[in-house]
Design goal:
Layout lengths: L1 H17 L12 H26 L16 H36 L10 H13 L7 E8 L2 H8 L1 H18 L5 E6 L2 E7 L7 H12 L4 E3 L2 E3 L3 E7 L7 H17 L4 E3 L2 H22 L3 E10 L5 E12 L3 E3 L5 H5 L4 H21 L5 E5 L2 H4 L2 H13 L7 E6 H6 L1 H13 L3 E7 L6 H6 L4 E4 L1 H6 L4 H16 L3 E5 L4 H10 L3 E3 L9 H10 L31
Parallel strand pairs: 6-7, 9-11, 11-12, 12-13, 13-14, 14-15, 15-16
Antiparallel strand pairs: 1-3, 1-6, 2-3, 4-5, 8-9, 8-16, 9-10
Helix pairs in contact: 1-2, 2-3, 5-6, 11-13
Length: about 550
């Protein structure tokens, strides 16, 4: 290339000479080899080419060839200096531009913060392997998520988070078999393309266990020792169907499916994929269902054990899909709670339930209405105002409505949830802790929750007759709640023996299939009019059996009329 530039300089000098000398415009042809040398060889090349060009059209090159007019020294010296300056400047600019282009090309396939190859690089590296006819039966894609990375960044800063990601990647490479490659595919996720020999003891399971065990030790990150809580999702190379992006997505699906099941690692399962796709499609149709009245409410009665009367109902939402038919609530409510769709869904349920309650009361059915609510809804300031306005519009007292919030939802963020519950209590609306016993709440929080009612989870009711310890837990829970001046509801009652036992324990209210299954409003009215529900032989206390000090919340109880 240097020889070519030299030849180009000689050709340009010849052009200047044979076109009449430096007086004419062809002198500017000398800039072409100078700029070319600067682009290829940077500053040094530009300077050398500038000097060579200046000398070639310097003292020996006449101003006018025909008149044999020689150049003054100042002319060719100043020109030489200009050539050198142009060459040096062009070389510097070219160097900066080329470095920038190289960086941009590198950044396309690497994470800028950690320097690790990124998702695009992973797709690029997977593509030839997936397209190859060679049997790659032992290659797996492992996705590792640092679950507490956001907390670490919020507490210690981005630099520590970046250093932690690099340290996790380094340790992963130390554990993985030779030939493994690690990629940063998201801020909190790494991926590793891992060859696992078919004859290796334990195979991929053993490798996953080794990785998780290695991650137990703390990481030195930017001068701070931190612990990384990790989980893994693993997909076999054949799971991608020849598509790199599909393989990465399926390893992600395995990761989140394992987290939902409480596992530290999981393998891709096509059934989980189908479920995820179906749930996503349902969420896309849920808002339409709300707007087009595809939803409906069923009502499950609540029986007061002291009086044998039905004193209230729980409103349960159902979805009559025009194509799928009846969609079970477990297929769309948990997913809605993870999106902003829970807000319009809850508003629809409350509006329908309160409207139905007003119609029943106008016909002489003195009932209470319980509605399930997400803690996220309680953080909406306007929702409580809307509920209050809705009750006034239907001329209903606030205590005829009870909002049920699950114990686990409260324990996810106790302080914030308690504040929202107190605002609700201040309006006079009843509060119930749903699924009690499944959320690992402490007694300290139980004493602070401003609830009127505790609902014992059906899992305890189901086992209490067969397991003595579970029975003692149920009995002691009822006693404890009474000490705290709270009404106790047991859900999931399926037979008379359970109901009799709960009555003997002092439980206030029961609900479940033994009393009645959830039914629409018309069916409930007919069932209520017949009055053919089972009643206990033993009586329960019609409210708290022990009271110390002032009541916790509202004093009105559902005891029938």
């Amino acid at each position: 290339m240097a020889v070519a530039i030299g030849v180009l300089l000689l050709c340009a000098a010849g052009l200047v000479y044979f076109t009449g000398g430096t007086r004419y415009a062809y002198l500017h042809a000398m800039y072409l080899p100078i700029i070319l040398a600067a682009v290829i060889f940077r500053v040094s090349g530009g300077v050398v080419a500038g000097i060579a060009a200046g000398l070639l059209v310097g003292p020996l090159m006449p101003i006018d060839v025909a008149g044999d007019l020689r150049q003054p020294v100042v002319n060719w010296a100043s020109r030489l200096g200009a050539f050198v300056v142009v060459g040096a400047f062009t070389g510097w600019i070219a160097g900066r531009l080329i470095e920038q282009v190289r960086h941009l090309r590198w950044a396309v396939t690497h994470d800028v913060d950690t320097g690790l190859p990124n998702r695009r690089a992973l797709s690029r590296d997977l593509r030839p392997i997936l397209a190859s006819d060679k049997d790659e039966g032992g290659v797996h894609l492992m996705v590792l998520r640092v679950e507490n990375l956001t907390e670490i960044i919020n507490t210690l800063g981005y630099d520590v988070g970046t250093a932690l990601s690099c340290a996790v990647a380094e340790r992963l490479l130390q554990i993985a078999p030779p030939g493994s490659r690690v990629y940063q595919i998201a801020p909190d996720r790494l991926a590793a393309m891992v060859p696992v020999a078919a004859e290796a003891p334990g195979g991929t399971d053993q490798l996953a266990e080794s990785v998780l065990e290695a991650m137990h030790a703390s990481f030195p990150a930017d001068g701070v020792n931190v612990h990384a809580s990790v989980s893994l999702g693993i997909a076999h190379l054949h799971d991608g169907g020849g598509d790199p992006d599909a393989l990465i997505r399926r390893a992600d699906i395995a990761l989140y499916a394992g987290q939902q099941l409480g596992r530290r690692y999981a393998f891709y399962d096509i059934q989980s994929d189908r479920t995820s796709r179906a749930n996503l499609a349902l969420m896309g149709e849920l808002l339409i269902a709300i707007q087009e009245d595809q939803l409906l409410l069923h009502y499950q009665p609540k029986l007061d054990l002291a009086t044998g009367r039905v004193v209230g109902v729980e409103a349960l939402v159902r979805w009559m899909h025009p194509v799928r038919g009846m969609v079970p609530p477990g297929d769309f409510i948990p997913q809605a709670e993870n999106t902003d769709l829970i807000s319009p869904l809850s508003r629809w349920v409350i509006n329908e339930a309160v409207g139905q309650l007003a119609r029943w009361r106008s016909r002489g059915l003195d009932l209470g209405m319980a509605v399930n609510l997400s803690v996220k809804n309680l953080h909406e300031d306007r929702l409580l105002e809307e509920i209050q306005a809705l009750l006034r519009r239907h001329d209903l007292e606030p205590d005829c409505l009870e909002l049920e919030v699950t114990e686990s939802a409260i324990m996810d963020d106790p302080e914030s949830a308690l504040e929202a519950l107190r605002r609700c209590r201040d309006l006079g609306i009843g509060l119930s802790i749903d699924d009690f016993g499944t959320g690992y709440s402490s007694l300290a929080y139980l004493s602070e929750i401003p609830a009127d009612t505790v609902k014992i989870d059906r899992s305890f009711v189901r086992k209490m007759l067969d397991d003595r310890d579970t029975g003692r837990i149920v009995e002691s829970t009822i006693a404890l709640c009474h000490y705290l001046n709270m009404v106790v509801v047991a859900e999931g009652v399926t037979n008379q023996h359970q109901m009799e036992t709960l009555a003997a324990f002092g439980c206030n209210v029961v609900q479940g299939f033994h009393i009645a299954r959830p039914m629409d409003a018309g069916a409930f009215e007919a069932w209520f009019t017949r009055g053919e529900w089972p009643r206990p032989k033993e009586s329960a206390a019609a409210g708290p059996v022990w009271t110390f000090g002032e009541p916790r919340g509202r004093t009105t109880r559902w005891t029938g009329s």
